């Protein structure tokens, strides 16, 4: 965005005068003459076409227009001062933009993110979640954490770990499941991949004739697990992403059979230069993984 010229001297004189309600005291603070402060404020008023102060015999009274302008000017100067102090102290803040699959964000990243913040207090993270459909270029992402084979055009993908899928449900439903074939009588919850349950049944030794693939389809494992918690059916999801539910006993894994249909990957566009913040996050997440 192209900004019009900002009258910084006038704004500075206005802000100091508004705090003191005096050109004289503002001049003392700014180490200039009272006449210079008065002229700067008059120049700003002329440019805006409004009066910012009423000149009184003993001081100033701020106008409605001045009241409207003051919070923005004060906040802007405070922010600039804080940033300059941090730069001077070698504490430059960096932004890191992450696109993360919702399941991974809730089940793995968020419980560990406080550790990254402690280690890197001057990196501010912006997290956006998705259901594995992401456009890093359009969304301006530094990294995208994705699930799949690791093959995305124009992308550098670094393997994090696999997340095998297994049947998960509430204990009440698990009480009726003696063998994997018993799932034929249960409501099955799955993602948009139609082959997940048939692949799991084959791994569990259930013949095709006994398999049932109908059920409720979700675009997010987080939503699917919420449905499982409410007893709507049996989810096929990665236990490693829902360890807290398993530890609390809210969800159980009735069978040991698991299948692997992909892995989690840390990805970035090959055209995106690696910043210090990106390097710090990459080193941290691989140490955690």
Describe this structure in words.
This protein is an alpha/beta fold and 289 residues long. It has three domains: 6-87, Arc Repressor Mutant, subunit A (Orthogonal Bundle), CATH 1.10.10; 94-161 and 261-286, Periplasmic binding protein-like II (D-Maltodextrin-Binding Protein, domain 2), CATH 3.40.190; 163-257, D-Maltodextrin-Binding Protein, domain 2, CATH 3.40.190. Helices cover 43% and strands 20% of the residues. It has helices spanning 8-20, 23-30, 34-48, 64-88, 102-119, 136-139, 171-174, 196-203, 221-229, 243-248, 276-288; strands at 53-56, 59-62, 94-101, 123-130, 143-148, 155-162, 166-168, 188-190, 215-217, 234-237, 263-269. Strands 4-3-5-11-6 form a five-stranded mixed sheet. Helix 1 packs across helix 4 (64-88). The chain is elongated, with a radius of gyration of 30 Å. The chain starts with 7 loop residues before the first helix and ends with a helix. The model has no long low-confidence stretch (mean pLDDT 91).
């Amino acid at each position: 965005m192209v900004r019009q010229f900002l009258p910084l001297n006038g704004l500075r004189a206005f802000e100091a005068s508004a705090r003191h309600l005096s050109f004289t005291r503002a001049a003392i603070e700014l180490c200039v003459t009272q006449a210079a402060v008065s002229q700067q404020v008059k120049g700003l008023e002329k440019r805006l076409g409004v009066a910012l102060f009423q000149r009184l015999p003993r001081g100033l009274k701020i106008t409605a227009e001045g009241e409207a302008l003051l919070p923005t000017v004060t906040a802007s100067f405070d922010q600039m001062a804080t940033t300059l102090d941090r730069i001077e102290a070698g504490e430059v803040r960096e932004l890191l933009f992450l696109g993360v699959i919702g399941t991974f964000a809730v089940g793995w990243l968020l419980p560990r993110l406080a550790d990254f913040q402690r280690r890197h207090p001057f990196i501010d993270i912006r997290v956006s979640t998705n259901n594995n459909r992401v456009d890093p270029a359009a969304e301006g992402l530094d990294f995208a954490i994705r699930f799949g084979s690791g093959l995305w055009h124009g992308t550098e993908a670094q393997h994090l770990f696999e997340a095998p899928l297994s049947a998960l449900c509430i204990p009440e439903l698990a009480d009726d499941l003696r063998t994997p074939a018993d799932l034929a009588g249960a409501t099955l919850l799955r993602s948009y991949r139609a082959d997940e349950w048939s692949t799991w049944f084959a791994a569990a030794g259930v013949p095709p004739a006994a398999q049932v693939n109908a059920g409720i389809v979700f675009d997010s494992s987080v939503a699917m697990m919420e449905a499982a918690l409410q007893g709507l059916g049996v989810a096929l999801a990665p236990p490693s992403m829902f360890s807290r539910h398993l530890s609390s006993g809210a969800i159980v894994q009735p069978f040991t059979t698991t299948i692997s249909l992909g892995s989690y990957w840390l990805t970035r566009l090959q055209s995106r230069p690696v910043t210090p913040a990106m390097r710090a996050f990459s080193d941290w997440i691989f140490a955690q993984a």
